[in-house]
Design brief:
By secondary structure, this protein is an alpha/beta fold. It is 30% helix and 26% strand.
């Protein structure tokens, strides 16, 4: 069994917690360490049990506190070489990861990290590099895909294997088009290396899920171009058009942007 908590999911900061009975890791630390400590106390999570950090990409809302956390708790940080270099260049990261704590991952190569079997895979996004994670532990698995401008065949394969899935539903297309953002930013969001919209998230789930998929969490919702209820209803409607009923065939939830969601016990 795995325990899963989202400590933040959106442009204000992203951080996910996974734990077995004996080990724990964080995926991205784009939230403040002080707030993370408070939330962990509220959830009965001992941060000293976190022995590993995985990073998806080098945008500030995913890495803001990774250096300070890694150095304060003496925890190694796993990322691709390009992501590590991007973190080191990022001016938002005032405290860099110590060189001895920078450990490398290769896309497509599965490695054992403590109790976890971790496979990073490529995800299209306009960062130095970007990966999703397929993680196996505790007799189950979870697939995490955030900040995805489009869907690749490799991503589809991992979604098809997932029992539990975290996937981006960043925006409603019409809200982006009709909203106040400058055109260059609208173009970036809507591009193949930008962010996934609600409809495409629903179609991606429906077209690639297997019967073993139990839980889906929609992540990284835009504050300006989406609403939790809109995202959920849009994805539910798309799933229904494929004959899939949320609440019956799978459990569908939306991760909160700035406050924790969970905990969830994954089997």
């Amino acid at each position: 069994m795995l325990k899963f908590i989202s400590f933040g999911s959106g442009s204000s900061g992203n951080c996910y917690y996974l734990a077995t009975s004996d080990d724990a890791l964080l995926i991205d630390i784009g939230v403040g360490v002080r707030g993370l400590k408070k939330n962990c106390r509220d959830f009965g999570v001992n941060l000293s049990s976190v022995h590993h950090v995985l990073i998806t990409h080098d945008h500030a809302d995913h890495i803001k506190s990774v250096g300070s956390f890694s150095n304060d708790f003496d925890v190694p940080v796993y990322a691709t070489d390009k992501v590590h270099k991007g973190i080191n260049r990022n001016y938002c990261i005032t405290q860099k990861i110590a060189p001895e704590r920078r450990l490398l991952l290769e896309k497509g190569r599965t490695i054992t990290i403590g109790d976890f079997l971790v496979t990073p895979f490529g995800v299209p996004h306009d960062s130095s590099d970007n990966v999703g994670y397929f993680i196996e532990a505790g007799g189950t698995n979870i697939c995490i895909i955030t900040d995805a401008g489009s869907v690749t065949e490799e991503m589809r394969q991992f979604i098809g294997r997932a029992r539990h899935l975290v996937i981006e539903a960043n925006h409603d297309i019409e809200m982006v088009k009709d909203g106040p953002y400058p055109q260059f930013l609208k173009d970036r969001i809507l591009s193949a290396t930008g962010h996934m919209n609600n409809h495409d998230a629903g179609a991606t789930i429906a077209e690639n899920m297997s019967e073993q998929l139990q839980n889906v969490w929609l992540c990284h919702l835009s504050e300006e171009n989406n609403h939790p209820e809109l995202a959920r209803k849009t994805v539910e409607s798309v799933l229904r058009s494929y004959g899939i009923v949320a609440g019956t065939d799978l459990r569908l939830e939306v991760l909160k942007r700035t406050t924790p969601t969970g905990p969830f016990e994954l089997e």
